[in-house]
């Protein structure tokens, strides 16, 4: 009787092992590994990122690949969970033997993979915003999106220009919003601005009028800044309008996708936020080096998926391009060489801005990469 | 000062009415089968997603809503027929796992059949806020209250005034006796799932203009609905409604007066305390163990 | 010395008196039966004596100690043990394990020693198993030694409860309708078991509907009706009591 | 038992790289938590939808104590386990008076409250973005790398299984199972049921906490998500799927549900649907859980011969 139990257990373990072993294979192509949050609360980051990577890998393979080698993409969905991300990162490194890691849609999933990436020694380009991904600098870790700190700085800069000195902060209590909140608190003093009300909400709250009422009743609030993504900011925007609040409403770069405007509807009129040039390609100055890049990317993405491009898709595009350029310069996918070349990336024109990395800056973007945009008549309007 | 309080109250009532509708679905199925259906939130999600997708595809809104309700009911019936019915005599925990499996499946299926994006429906009667003594309320919130009220009255009528409704109630009190007088327990179970799927879908449709929806929207609503049903006392429809309203109002007042970061925690602490002193919820049947 | 004293005991459920102002006592070594029509409050009385319910008024003394308000497990430790009208068998365990739970109080209950399976625990368990085997044989369950409780018939389960109660080595054993639902043969066998239990020096308090059995084995009888004491005395006295005949036998005739 | 040891020892033959070891370690860690949780759910019949919270507390306890207060890892693990045990003891008393779905609700609430605290107190925990910590060092020896963790986890799993088997077949274990069978029945023969329920609640919480501490050291980075409601549901599912009231069943359930997402990762978007179908199918056709149902089938086949 007891033996049966054990045999059963053995069989299960063996079955699992066989199933896992079936996944592993090695081949000629350049292998790109990605772990993204294609499902879960951050799926609207991971989903476009995944689609972008798949589209461009296919496109490049049709064009004959890179350095005469085909590209092979392996993507896993971590569902936004750190522990899953860490296991998938290990799988990509150890089993799939990829040449580069792209991913971590969120700061949490990225950071969960960092310890083993550093140990394994493989170039890793994160698509998440958290500033702690690249500060302090980690040898193998790079990132393409602007940091949440930069978003905060851009917003505070804009406020300062408008003579705003007392604001309310309302943020989502999940990864993106929380990290943005903490970074905002850190840099806000540099702009002579005081945060007089600090409220949070859960990503799936049906209603945040309570928090906003509290803000409304706080004396002296000259503007409200909302840090969050997903449906939360849209609900904040609607409730804001409902309460008849008239001070300017700022959003973060987390809502830089058309979905936000669609969900929030008319209430989104007049909302200001920092965003990459990607959302307003036509309005960029003709001399802007980004203009051709973002125009082309937007066209290709929207043609392929029949949906509006978001800046998150752009992060994945930039990550892929930065890696491929570095590999081309290195002439191989030798991990050490590619890493060195990524670090030497200079003047790359991406969807997120001009990227020039150094040994002390593994992101390479400056504040100029951000534009302030305002929502007018249901569309983005450049408003620097 | 009073205006702020009123605003918190409105906020809480809006959320609370949504939770109450979710909780009511739990209560109906629990009454008929003593099953806690953790896929209840998925009915709400399907109602919202289906109607929003249909409207986006150009179907007129009333038709889209009716279709969404039918889809959700079909899912409810299928769930009962293929997943609950075959496992009727299993342990409570086993059935819980089945319904959790069902909710994972339904989320997965929605994500493939429809998509992963957020959807919204136009508000039923515009988006001009209504001012009440310095506080404001969206017309859609009134819709939610009204629909919740209509649902409650409708259910009361169904369970107390129709033969079939009475039969369903009888089954919940004593399954054997109900069988003896010829009430088909199977039919009752099926009806209870259809009914709570309908209820969930109605809820999903009316709240979508407020909260939006995507394939994962059911998780939170399911959790809050369960909390509402337990707080009110399992199997007590009115209890679930009051439980939902309490949870919503506590959350709103907590974020207004205490801490918005801990509002969910505060709501749970209150539920815990209620349970410590009233182990069967606020209005649950207080059964002494017969030994 | 009186083993059990019940003084002015009352219990009401939502205004209904299930037991009202009841006083009686049980002498050691006796088989003391409680009789009465359905709803007379017999099971409620048992639940009050064994601590399952707390009384609304009055008190219970066991071995001259006030015990009302104590928990069932505390009363068990003092030597009170019982069976149930609605079976309370551990259906998730083997029959013999059910009986071994009965011996709980007499085993090494240290958590760490159980966790680490210390030799003392192993030895204790071995002895316990042997004694519980004897008990099962004593109540006539020899053929169910290896059975799962869930696979046993109703009659056997009734005896299993008795064996379990006996494993606790009680001074007083309360049996709630041990013969209910049994056929005549089984009933006679239970009869035998009760007599032997009493013969071993354990006081038995019995609730039973089977009048033949009650009259045959009881030393003393208390008759209840509507939660109140109707009569008490030896079987002959109670049988002759006109109130009892009217209320109890009359109701059944 | 011996066979479990052989399986643990022999499995690495099929492991071609450290990713397999990593999955193996995760499976065994989950298995240990489930062995503890099964004592509560399967044997004592008390549900908990909050055990991921205890797991997370263990993990964060270790992370905080080692990084902020320089407590040696083994000390941090012990202190965390003691604190979690104490917490479980304090909340266990009132909570375990509840039954069935009410108990499920209360434990769920405890788990969610823990999760919210870990998420919110970012000064200590790093908030939703998580925090990192160092390797597990003890007596000048560092547990590092997936292989070494594998053997540590393997030994601990066998130890956990041994302890659980001991407990079940002891006076204490029988009392626990009796609580499941009939609380009144157990009370009247001298079993202090509420204390035993609290005891097993504490034991299972400590199991989860200890594993949480080790998990944190192994991964080197933790996020509050490990303590989410889904984590708890995941653990309960492992226990129920594998087989309630079966120590090896819990192990099997944990291993399967840890491997499944890895196997299903290749079918990408269909993962959720397949996982849902497997959960429903197993429970419909094997309501007692995989292992007990399979064993019963084998048994009846043998008897039929």
UniProtKB/TrEMBL annotation, chain A:
Keywords: Amino-acid transport, Signal, Transport. It holds the Pfam family Peripla_BP_6. Residues 1-26 form the signal peptide. Residues 29-365 form the Leucine-binding protein domain. InterPro entries: BCAA_transport (IPR051010), Leu-bd (IPR028081), Leu_Ile_Val-bd (IPR000709), Peripla_BP_I (IPR028082). CDD domains: PBP1_ABC_RPA1789-like. The keyword Lipid biosynthesis does not apply. Belongs to the leucine-binding protein family. PANTHER family: BLR7848 PROTEIN, LEUCINE-SPECIFIC-BINDING PROTEIN. This is ABC transporter substrate-binding protein. It comes from Paramagnetospirillum marisnigri.
TrEMBL record, chain B:
It is a multi-pass membrane protein. Keywords: Amino-acid transport, Cell membrane, Membrane, Transmembrane, Transmembrane helix, Transport. It is found in: Cell membrane. InterPro entries: ABC_transp_permease, BCAA_transport_permease. GO terms for molecular function: transmembrane transporter activity. The chain crosses the membrane at residues 6-30, 92-114, 142-159, 188-211, 241-259, 265-283. GO terms for biological process: amino acid transport. Pfam families: BPD_transp_2. It comes from the Bacteria. One of its GO terms (cellular component) is plasma membrane. Belongs to the binding-protein-dependent transport system permease family. LivHM subfamily. This is ABC transporter permease.
UniProtKB/TrEMBL annotation, chain C:
Keywords: ATP-binding, Nucleotide-binding, Transport. It comes from the Bacteria. The keyword Transport applies. SMART domains: AAA (SM00382). GO terms for molecular function: ATP binding; ATP hydrolysis activity; L-isoleucine transmembrane transporter activity; L-phenylalanine transmembrane transporter activity; L-valine transmembrane transporter activity. Gene3D superfamilies: P-loop containing nucleotide triphosphate hydrolases (3.40.50.300). GO terms for cellular component: plasma membrane. One of its GO terms (biological process) is L-alanine transport. Residues 4-251 form the ABC transporter domain. It holds the Pfam family ABC_tran. This is High-affinity branched-chain amino acid ABC transporter ATP-binding protein LivG. It comes from Paramagnetospirillum marisnigri.
């Amino acid at each position: 009787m007891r033996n049966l139990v054990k045999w059963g257990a053995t069989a299960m373990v063996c079955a699992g092992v066989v199933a896992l072993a079936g996944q592993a294979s090695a081949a000629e192509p350049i292998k790109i590994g990605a772990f993204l949050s294609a499902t879960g609360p951050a799926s609207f980051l991971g989903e476009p990122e995944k689609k972008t990577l798949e589209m461009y890998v296919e496109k490049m393979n049709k064009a004959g690949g890179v350095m005469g080698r085909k590209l092979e993409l392996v993507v896993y969905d971590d569902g936004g969970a750190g522990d899953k991300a860490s296991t998938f990162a290990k799988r990509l490194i150890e089993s799939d033997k990829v040449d580069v890691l792209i991913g971590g849609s969120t700061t949490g999933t990225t950071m969960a993979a960092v310890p083993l990436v550093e140990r394994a020694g493989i170039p890793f380009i994160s698509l998440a915003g958290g500033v702690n991904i690249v500060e302090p600098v980690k040898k193998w870790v790079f990132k393409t999106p602007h940091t949440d700190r930069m978003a905060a700085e851009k917003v505070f800069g804009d406020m300062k220009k408008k003579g705003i000195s007392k604001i309310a902060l309302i943020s989502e209590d999940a990864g993106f919003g929380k990290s943005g909140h903490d970074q905002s608190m850190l840099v806000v003093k540099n702009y002579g601005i005081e945060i007089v009300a600090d409220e949070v909400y859960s990503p799936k709250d049906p209603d945040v009028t309570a928090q906003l009422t509290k803000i409304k009743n706080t004396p002296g609030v000259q503007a409200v800044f909302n840090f969050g993504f997903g449906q939360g900011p849209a609900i904040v925007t609607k409730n804001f309008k409902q309460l008849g609040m008239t001070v300017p409403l700022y959003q973060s770069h987390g809502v830089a996708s058309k979905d936000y405007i669609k969900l929030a509807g008319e209430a989104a009129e007049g909302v200001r936020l920092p965003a990459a040039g990607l959302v307003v390609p036509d309005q960029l100055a003709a001399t802007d080096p980004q203009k051709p890049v973002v125009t082309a990317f937007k066209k290709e993405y929207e043609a392929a998926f029949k949906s509006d491009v978001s800046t998150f898709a752009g992060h994945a595009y930039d990550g892929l391009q930065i890696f491929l350029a570095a590999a081309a310069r290195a002439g191989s996918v030798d991990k050490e060489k590619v890493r060195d070349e990524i670090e030497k990336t200079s003047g790359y024109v991406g969807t997120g801005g001009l990227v020039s990395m150094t040994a002390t800056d593994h992101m390479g973007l400056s504040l100029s990469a951000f534009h302030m945009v305002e929502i007018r008549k249901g569309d983005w309007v450049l408003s620097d | 000062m009073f205006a702020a309080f009123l605003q918190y109250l409105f906020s809480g009532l809006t959320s609370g009415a949504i939770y109450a509708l979710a909780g009511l679905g739990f209560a109906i199925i629990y009454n008929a089968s003593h099953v806690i259906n953790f896929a209840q939130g998925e009915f709400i999600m399907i109602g919202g997603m289906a109607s929003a997708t249909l409207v986006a595809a150009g179907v007129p809104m009333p038709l889209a809503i009716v279709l969404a309700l039918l889809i959700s009911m079909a899912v409810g019936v299928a769930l009962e027929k293929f997943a609950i019915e075959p496992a009727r005599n299993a342990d409570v925990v086993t059935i819980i796992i089945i319904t959790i499996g069902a909710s994972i499946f339904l989320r997965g299926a929605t994500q493939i059949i429809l998509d992963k994006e957020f959807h919204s429906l136009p508000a039923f009667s515009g988006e001009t806020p209504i001012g009440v003594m310095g506080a404001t309320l969206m017309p859609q919130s009134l819709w939610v209250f009204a629909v919740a009220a209509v649902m409650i009255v409708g259910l009361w009528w169904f369970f107390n005034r129709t033969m079939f409704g009475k039969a369903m109630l009888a089954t919940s009190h004593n399954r054997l006796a109900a069988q003896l007088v010829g009430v088909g327990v199977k039919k009752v179970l099926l009806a209870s799932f259809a009914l709570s799927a309908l209820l969930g879908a109605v809820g999903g449709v009316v709240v979508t203009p407020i909260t939006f929806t995507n394939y994962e929207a059911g998780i939170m609503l399911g959790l809050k609905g369960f909390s509402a049903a337990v707080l009110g006392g399992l199997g007590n429809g009115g209890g679930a409604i009051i439980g939902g309203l309490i949870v919503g109002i506590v959350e709103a007042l907590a974020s207004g007066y205490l801490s918005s970061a801990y509002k969910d925690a505060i709501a749970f602490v209150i539920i815990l305390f209620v349970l410590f002193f009233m182990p069967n919820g606020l209005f649950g049947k207080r059964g002494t163990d017969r030994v | 010395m009186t083993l059990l004293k019940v003084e002015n005991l009352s219990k009401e459920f939502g205004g209904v008196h299930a037991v009202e102002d009841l006083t009686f006592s049980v002498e050691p070594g006796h088989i003391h039966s409680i009789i009465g029509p359905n709803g007379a409050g017999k099971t409620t009385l048992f639940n009050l004596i064994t601590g399952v319910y707390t009384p609304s008024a009055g008190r219970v003394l066991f071995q001259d100690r006030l015990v009302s308000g104590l928990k069932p497990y505390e009363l068990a430790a003092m030597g009170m043990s019982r069976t149930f009208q609605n079976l309370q068998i551990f259906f998730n365990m083997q029959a013999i394990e059910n009986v071994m739970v009965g011996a709980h109080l007499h085993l090494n209950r240290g958590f760490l020693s159980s966790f680490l399976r210390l030799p003392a625990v192993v030895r204790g368990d071995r002895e316990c198993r042997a004694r519980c085997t004897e008990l099962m044989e004593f109540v006539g369950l020899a053929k169910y030694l290896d059975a799962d409780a869930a696979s046993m018939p109703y009659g056997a389960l009734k005896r299993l409860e008795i064996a379990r109660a006996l494993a606790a080595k009680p001074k007083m054993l309360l049996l709630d309708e041990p013969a209910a639902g049994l056929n005549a043969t089984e009933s006679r066998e239970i009869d035998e078991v009760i007599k032997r239990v009493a013969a071993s020096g354990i006081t038995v308090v019995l609730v039973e509907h089977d009048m033949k059995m009650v009259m045959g084995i009881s030393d003393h009888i208390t008759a209840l009706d509507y939660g109140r004491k109707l009569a008490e005395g030896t079987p002959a006295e109670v049988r002759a009591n006109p109130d009892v005949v009217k209320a109890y036998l009359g109701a059944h005739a | 038992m011996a066979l479990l040891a052989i399986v643990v020892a022999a499995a690495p033959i099929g492991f071609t790289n450290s990713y397999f070891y990593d999955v193996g370690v995760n499976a065994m860690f989950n298995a240990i938590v489930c062995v503890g949780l099964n004592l509560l759910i399967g044997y004592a019949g008390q549900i908990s939808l909050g055990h991921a919270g205890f797991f997370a507390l263990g993990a964060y306890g270790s992370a905080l104590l080692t990084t902020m207060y320089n407590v040696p890892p083994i000390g941090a693990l012990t202190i965390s386990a003691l604190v979690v045990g104490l917490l479980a003891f304090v909340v266990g008393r009132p909570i375990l008076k509840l039954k069935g779905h009410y108990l499920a609700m209360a434990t769920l609430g405890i788990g969610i409250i823990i999760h919210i605290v870990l998420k919110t107190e970012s000064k200590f925990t790093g908030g939703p973005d998580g925090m990192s910590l160092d390797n597990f060092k003890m007596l000048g020896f560092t547990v590092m790398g997936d292989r070494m963790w594998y053997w540590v986890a393997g030994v601990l799993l066998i130890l956990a299984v041994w302890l659980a088997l001991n407990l079940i077949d002891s006076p204490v274990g029988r009392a626990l199972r009796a609580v499941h069978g009939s609380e009144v029945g157990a009370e009247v023969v001298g079993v202090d049921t509420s204390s035993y329920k609290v005891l097993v609640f504490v034991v299972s919480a400590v199991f989860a906490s200890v594993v949480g501490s080790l998990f944190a050291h192994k991964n080197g980075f933790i996020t509050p998500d490990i303590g989410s409601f889904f984590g708890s549901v995941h653990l309960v599912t492992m226990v129920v799927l594998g087989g309630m009231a079966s120590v090896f069943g819990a192990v099997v359930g944990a291993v399967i549900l840890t491997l499944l997402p890895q196997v299903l990762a290749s079918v990408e978007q269909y993962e959720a649907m397949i996982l849902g179908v497997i959960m429903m199918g197993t429970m419909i056709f094997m309501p007692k859980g995989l292992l007990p149902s399979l064993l019963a089938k084998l048994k009846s086949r043998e008897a039929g011969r």
